[in-house]
Design brief:
The chain is built from 12 helices and 13 strands. It is an alpha+beta fold and 352 residues long. It has 3 domains: 2-128, 3-Layer(aba) Sandwich (Rossmann fold), CATH 3.40.50; 140-155 and 223-346, D-amino Acid Aminotransferase, Chain A, domain 1 (2-Layer Sandwich), CATH 3.30.470; 159-220, 2-Layer Sandwich (Dna Ligase, domain 1). The strands form 3 sheets. Strands 8, 9, 10, 11, 12 and 13 form a 6-stranded antiparallel β-sheet that branches. Strands 4-7-5-6 form a 4-stranded antiparallel β-sheet, with helices on both faces. Strand 5 and strand 6 (193-194) form a beta hairpin. Helix 1 (14-30) crosses helix 12 (333-346) and helix 7 crosses helix 8 (199-208).
């Protein structure tokens, strides 16, 4: 198959996406596909007249990508594009996608998980991996997905959606219940997530989170074991438990070696493992997700599970949670990428 692996883009998770995309692209090429990596934002500036020849590029156009301690400088990325267009789609991106048999979405965050690129590909009539545009948008918006979880009877921490300005931060810091979590409604990779321990930290968090958008979610903080569970097809995979080396499971803890201890499968009783898996499957179905997803949850001291959020395009770096969970049931990284492609290719998207 001719496969375009879309990665990069202009979200705060750009670096993670490029590592995901590179890993997936190389795996698919090893599986015998004509796979190439295309950066959603940068595109292919110096493309040949016949774009088809790019699918034979010996390196699959894969960059030497890595995840730094800090999130990428997006302004520098924007300035690096020659055309300086306002478009979030780089040169020849849609043309290359139209030539592909399927597009593997290795994107995370804005433009990737929010349903917009899915909708564009639907209009092109090009198959792509993962959930459709509507389910992607729902899962990306933490407030909307919380409403659906509440309606479906899926336990999730109490929450409140706020819209405010910097001038309101001090007042809100005195009014909101503690302990709480402050987060942007559309973030990922723990960017835009704050765990204040006192009201001074809460005030600072309420000010800083506005960098990510005007809508802010504040939810009750549940203490317990941090679990994440992947769904692949119609089945759940073994849970992973994460214990950060520091106080918080932030961007650095997620992606830097030694910053967190990850146990897969998690040390749970069979009953707890099954309950976590069934919760992930319920969330996957309630939000309308397809092919694969990953749900984050807390197991509290009383043994109750609380769903935090679902990820419609979870990280697919070779060391990410989903590949680890697949490995725990004997599935290699290459086999996982192949199953995602084949399941997605067989999907019949609804035509609007």
């Amino acid at each position: 198959m001719k496969i375009v692996v879309l990665a990069g883009g202009i979200s705060t998770e750009r670096a993670v996406s490029l590592v995901t995309g590179s890993g997936v692209c190389r795996a698919l090429r090893e599986n015998g596909h004509q796979a190439i990596l295309v950066d959603l934002f940068l595109g292919v500036a110096d493309a040949p007249g016949d774009l088809n020849v790019l699918f034979d590029a010996p390196d699959g156009l894969c960059p030497e990508a890595k995840i730094e301690v800090q999130a990428p400088d997006l302004e520098a990325v924007k300035k690096s594009r020659a055309d300086q267009s306002a478009s979030h789609l780089g040169p020849h991106v849609l043309e290359l996608c139209a030539l592909a048999d399927i597009v593997f979405l290795g994107l995370h965050g804005q433009d990737g998980e929010d349903g917009r690129i899915q909708a564009a590909l639907d209009l092109l009539g090009v198959p792509y991996t993962g959930a459709g545009h509507l389910a992607s948008a729902i899962a990306m918006d933490k407030a909307v997905s919380k409403q659906i979880m509440d309606a479906a009877g899926i336990p999730t921490p109490k929450w409140k959606l706020l819209e405010y300005g910097q001038e309101d931060a001090a007042r809100l810091a005195e009014e909101l219940p503690m302990p709480c979590v402050v987060k942007t409604i559309g973030g990922g990779s723990s960017l835009g997530v704050y765990l204040p321990e006192d009201r001074a930290q809460l005030r600072a968090a309420l000010g800083e989170v506005l960098r990510y958008g005007a809508k802010v979610l504040v939810e009750e903080r549940i203490y317990g074991r941090e679990l994440t569970v992947a769904v692949l097809g119609e089945r759940w995979l073994p849970a992973v438990e994460t214990v950060p080396a520091g106080k918080e499971f932030d961007y650095e803890a997620k992606y830097q070696a030694g910053a967190a201890l990850e146990t897969c499968p998690a040390d749970l009783t069979p009953e707890q493992m099954a309950a976590a898996g069934e919760m992930a499957l319920r969330v996957h179905k309630a939000l309308g997700l397809e092919v694969y997803s990953r749900t984050d949850m807390i197991l509290d001291e009383q043994g109750r599970l609380w769903c935090l959020e679902a990820n419609s395009l979870p990280g697919m770096t070779p060391t990410s949670f989903v590949p680890k969970e697949a490995g725990a049931v004997g599935m290699s990284y290459n086999q996982l990428c192949e199953e995602i492609v084949q399941r997605s290719y067989r999907l019949k998207r609804r035509a609007y």
